[in-house]
Specification:
This protein is α/β, with parallel strands linked by helices. It has a single domain, classed as Aldolase class I (TIM Barrel, Alpha-Beta Barrel), CATH 3.20.20. A seven-stranded parallel beta sheet has the order 1-7-6-5-4-3-2. Helix 2 crosses helix 3 and helix 4 runs parallel beside helix 5. The chain is globular and about 50 Å long.
Length: 300
């Protein structure tokens, strides 16, 4: 299994840790590990999606080249190449580190319609990739969510989405999600035990989510696809289970997982202060790189 750790607000800077166990790694024949990597998409799928979209859409290609090579300035002559789209702003969880907890009935706005989504995608001809999720659980949008993924993929866009995994068993959602052809599905798992998971992800059922992840990954395996990633936000409430997440991911069938060491404040003073108290980076073991990689190697 592939494990990665990130430690930055913009997910661009790998955490720098120097484990004392690198010497031990040499002794038992393992190469010492370098700086921890940042999350990377499936290279072949990403490259083929990008290449196909650029070759078949001349305006996208021209926009992409401008974005890549035009000097940075206050005014830019090109459209965005990447976009975060929040299709709905409501959730069935109210996690301890998420501002959804403050919203009346855990909702702040109406859902985006499929027609509005199409208009947005069609108007943004420079896009090469989107993240289709924001603050909220996208599977609550039901058929509309799957339509959005399928439409974006038909435009040869790289599509990443995030789910809490709680609704995958309903109406064969785990099948319908993968059949819509997302490029990557990240499932948020912030506890390796029932007690920790349900304490952080309030409103959840550990057993239900665990079983649903097995359904999702089993279906991907059946179809010969690698599309899922377990995503874990390390914080004070789960740092004691740090090394338990790798075997937990393996049991659920995840081929990849990512540890996030940064808790966002979402641009809000209250949540910045609250989440700063949950930060747990300083509590991590020095030799975590070696121990994580050793565990991942054993589990395949």
């Amino acid at each position: 299994m592939e494990t990665q750790t990130i430690d930055s607000e913009n997910l661009a800077t790998p955490t720098q840790l120097t484990p004392a166990s690198d010497a031990h790694a040499k002794m038992i024949g393992l190469r010492p590990l370098g700086p921890l990597p940042i999350p990377q998409p499936d290279f072949e799928l990403y490259r083929s999606t990008l290449r196909g979209g650029l070759l078949r859409h001349p305006r996208r290609l021209f926009n992409y080249l401008l974005a890549k090579y035009y000097p940075k300035a206050a005014w830019l002559p090109y459209l965005p190449t990447k976009l975060d789209i929040e299709p709905l702003s409501r959730c069935n969880f109210h996690c301890i580190m998420c501002p959804v907890s403050d919203w009346p009935k855990y909702q702040r706005a109406g859902d985006m319609s499929f027609e509005d989504f199409k208009k947005l995608i069609d108007s943004q001809y420079g896009l090469t990739e989107i993240k289709l999720q924001g603050l909220g659980e996208p599977l609550l949008a039901r058929d509309t969510f799957f339509q959005m993924i399928s439409y974006a993929r038909s435009k040869e866009l790289w599509v990443r989405t995030v789910t809490n995994g709680s609704l995958l068993h309903l109406n064969d959602n785990y099948r319908r999600l993968i059949d819509a052809d997302p490029s990557e599905v990240q499932v948020s798992i912030d506890g390796a035990t029932k007690e920790t998971f349900e304490k952080i992800r309030r409103g959840s059922k550990f057993e239900r989510v665990t079983e649903n992840c097995g359904l999702l990954n089993g279906y991907c395996k059946e179809k010969g696809l690698v599309r899922t990633r377990m995503w874990t936000v390390i914080q004070k409430e789960n740092v004691h289970e740090f090394l338990d997440f790798v075997p937990h991911a393996a049991r659920m069938g995840f081929p990849r997982m990512t540890y996030a060491l940064y808790l966002s404040g979402w641009g809000d003073e209250k949540w910045s202060e609250s989440n700063s108290r949950l930060q747990a980076k300083s509590m991590l073991p020095e030799n975590l790189r070696f121990r994580l990689s050793s565990s991942a190697r054993i589990l395949g």
